[in-house]
Protein: Enoyl-CoA hydratase/isomerase family protein
Organism: Sphingomonas populi
Amino acid sequence: MFHKELSQYAEQYQRFVSLHREEGILEIRLHGHGDDQASIIWDVEVHHGLSHLFYDIARDPENKCVIITGTADGFIAREEIPNSKPTPENPDQAVPSFIWDGVLSHGRYLLNNLLEIEVPVIAAVNGPALYHAELALLGDIVLASEEASFQDTPHFFSNIVPGDGIQTLFQRLINPVRAGYFLLTGEKIGARRAYELGLVNEVLPADELLARAWYWARFILDRSPLVVKYSRIVLTRHWKKLFLEEHGYGLALEGLAVGAGSRMTENDPAKRARGHDYNN
């Protein structure tokens, strides 16, 4: 009675996602700024908008399974976030508290609402996931193309504390030692290495990726509806508990560093970590 129909929320978010549902399987395809043939560009609107989109998807009973993928050659490989940190010309610039309050809220909602989707989520990572890789890696099944890679570009790599949940995710998916290295050095993990580390379940040629995701979605929906729904609830309970304990604290420290600590460093791109591929 109160939930939105797919046609309503599909139109609302069409600037950065295309939504297609068939057989109860909802495909979320991230795409560029109004260009559904280009890869998505991560910005404030996308960050906030996806948190609302996941809520609408979670409350729509017609969604029986969800696939999330990207467009063209990237999953999330580009970002356009206005620079609100201090610069040599304006060394006292700081992020206003009301701005960071919005980041804090939407940062929590982004992952909380993703985990509130009570049907299985399959990630089909079609290319580099350099920003918010957790949107893929929190899937129940994670498929990657041979061109996929994973990196945490927007945090320590760019002079920001990795506190928005990425630390919680990688410390559990791999281990604290490897996660610390990944988050502090700008390490980029290719698809094959991600498979070896247990980050992804399958590595496929790009032209087979989406078909494989739909195969597993249909396989899942051969089970009874309540088994499908409650299995998702069982599998996300662990993550919900961890994010409840750690998410707000990490975001608070991230905000403190951006608002105050960053004023003690020069915003010099030459001093940023360059990152590197995994070294065998």
